[in-house]
Amino acid sequence: xxxxxxxxxxxxxxxxxxxxxxxxxxxxxxxxxxxxxxxxxxxxxxxxxxxxxxxxxxxxxxxxxxxxxxxxxxxxxxxxxxxxxxxxxxxxxxxxxxxxxxxxxxxxxxxxxxxxxxxxxxxxxxxxxxxxxxxxxxxxxxxxxxxxxxxxxxxxxxxxxxxxxxxxxxxxxxxxxxxxxxxxxxxxxxxxxxxxxxxxxxxxxxxxxxxxxxxxxxxxxxxxxxxxxxxxxxxxxxxxxxxxxxxxxxxxxxxxxxxxxxxxxxxxxxxxxxxxxxxxxxxxxxxxxxxxxxxxxxxxxxxxxxxxxxxxxxxxxxxxxxxxxxxxxxxxxxxxxxxxxxxxxxxxxxxxxxxxxxxxxxxxxxxxxxxxxxxxxxxxxxxxxxxxxxxxxxxxxxxxxxxxxxxxxxxxxxxxxxxxxxxxxxxxxxxxxxxxxxxxxxxxxxxxxxxxxxxxxxxxxxxxxxxxxxxxxxxxxxxxxxxxxxxxxxxxxxxxxxxxxxxxxxxxxxxxxxxxxxxxxxxxxxxxxxxxxxxxxxxxxxxxxxxxxxxxxxxxxxxxxxxxxxxxxxxxxxxxxxxxxxxxxxxxxxxxxxxxxxxxxx
Length: 602
Description:
Blueprint: H1 5-42, H2 48-62, H3 65-77, H4 83-96, H5 98-108, H6 117-127, H7 133-158, H8 170-174, H9 180-197, H10 200-212, H11 218-231, H12 234-240, H13 245-267, H14 269-284, H15 288-297, H16 313-338, H17 342-352, H18 377-406, H19 413-445, H20 450-485, H21 492-517, H22 524-553, H23 559-590, H24 594-601
Helix pairs in contact: 1-2, 1-7, 2-4, 3-4, 3-12, 3-13, 3-18, 4-13, 4-16, 5-10, 5-16, 6-7, 9-11, 10-11, 10-16, 11-13, 11-16, 12-13, 13-16, 13-17, 14-16, 18-19, 18-20, 18-21, 19-20, 20-23, 21-22, 21-23, 22-23
């Protein structure tokens, strides 16, 4: 039977179905555990053993080492995790990713999971219409699980049979008898294949098919998987390109960990493969290396080779078991050695990527978020939260500058310089709002849980209100400029009252910044304090407004002076409203309804 172009297109479609199934399954699990993953990673301790187990568990849960390492890069970029903590998690992630290989290995030949795919789809698809988001996400996981094994089954069906089409893929078999050269060639193929697919699981599945079809030996299959261990580092590297230095160091650490381990194993490749073969033989009853010897001799036990020269189902199961055992033993050994040198490892990474000079850093660039890959939308929310905190602190400096302007001599050169700086800050705040909002919109385009969507909505509201505060601070500067151009001066009593109003405003601003720092777990007392401070500002504004009318009528100062006085007071009252709106944005998205009850009971 000739292998046609239609069969080749079907093979490509089968690979795409496998990759799509892996993606849907991983994202479904991320949506189920999104908040929990943030809490686990965010609460990481300096205990490297705890970090390793965290990496193992999270990677096993979301079925993707690339996704978990991208999360780690994001957390380091956001300042929530140190480089040393990140290395421990990455060490564990390399072990956790072997769970995926075991799942594929277990269900590939021993159990035809594709036969049950329709049954699982019958369970998963109705779950998409459930009201609870957890059930919807679990439904996505089941659907992705079905697609993954349906794709794997179709790959087996549409790969060319070398027994019936000896001319097909002859170039592959030409490189299988070059000794160590073959190992290096297929090691390189594993690197490239995994970089293109951005999934070591996809490389494992393809390798499993190649070995089971007799294209390559078990040893060369191990070489491809070893190369895939390096190729999988491409995803976190791409994610770190637009990040800060800490994020780049984390990605570099991941690359070094995998490269060093792979090169060491490559140097002792034959003995290491024999070790894996022996372990496999002890566990499954068949050593995959015996299958290779039988293939080369074209003879052997009927339990290994069928009459056509292909592998029997039992032999295929042993090869699958061995291919899953190889990365498990490799990553476990790598972990057991590297875990003791974590601090030294971090020093090496820092030496390779030294700290830049502080004067090289741009003053007005986003600190935590970037335009890199958004592979884990639930986790990207934390980066946005950290950036919003920085945004609020920057606007706080604008309020300080505006207050300083009130006390400066307008004829002083420093006055003009500070005014220009405040104007520059206002322009930067506009840009920051757009960049953070654009980032959040990209995050929202990913697969988010309903809770994640609420957070994005709340943060969009918060940054809009923070930008309004920045505008208000610059409006104060413009009011002072008009006052100075009109040659209006305030008396000591008026200056004192303005200071009292802006002292209240400072307190409200500091309280708002504290809430932004603890956005996910804000204290009820601080939220209630925000409402109380806003009431104080309103009451004080009302009192000053009444006194202003009285003072103008009694000619304590003229009408023009009173207008500028109330403009400054009115702008302060607006700023208080904007600050309260920020607090409400935090409260409604991150706090339960009990705060409302406390406020209404006061």
